[in-house]
Request: fold
Amino acid sequence: MKVKVCGTTSVADAVLAAQAGADALGFIFAPVSRRLVTAQVAREAGIAAGPTVARVGVFLNQGLDEVLRTAEAARVSAVQVHGSLPGLYVRQLAAYYPVLRVVRPDELTQAAAEWRDHPGVTLMLDAPEPGGGVPLDWAALRADFPAGAWLAGGLGAGNVAQAIGALNPAGVDAVSRLEHLPGRKDPEAVRTFVGAARVAAGTGYPQ
Reply:
C-alpha cells in the first residue's frame, strides 16, 4: 500500500514527508486551492525529496494543454485530476502520465466500470469537498469500493487504520489533518500518519 502526503508547498515539507516514509507527494496546481504551488517550487521540492518519492501534480477542471505544460515544468511523475472531466480527456492524459482519477462516492460505481480495464488510470475516492478534512462513511462504501483504488478524504493518524481496515485501499492520501495551517505541514502529524498507515497495512513499525 502507498502513502501520499498532499498539499506540499515547500522544500522543507517535501523533505519532511520523504523522511517520514511517504511514497508520494502531492503538489496542487488548481488556482482555487489554498495550497496552490508554482511549478518551480514543486520541481525543487520533488528533487529535494529524492528519486524514490513519486511526485503527483493535482489539477481541477483544467485544460489538457495547461496540465501537460505544468506537469512537464514541475517534473511530476503522475497526475491527479478532480472535476467534471470526459473520459476522452482522461484517456488522452493517460497517454502521457499515470493518472489518479478522483471521484466522489456517488460516482464510484460508474467510474469503476469505466476504468476497470485501463491500466493507466487508477481511481481515488475522495470526499465531496476535497481537502475539507471530513472523512467518508467507509463501512457504507465497502461493497462498492473497487480493488486497486486509492482512498482520501479526512484521513489522519487517528483514523487511517480504521479506513484501511474497512476498505483495503491500494493507497491513502491526506492533507488537511497533516497541517498547522493550509499549506503548512505539522511534522508530528505527518510522521504519525505515515507510521499509522504503515502499521495498519502490515508494512511498518509502531511510532
Remarks:
- The chain has eight helices and ten strands.
- The chain has a mean pLDDT of 94.
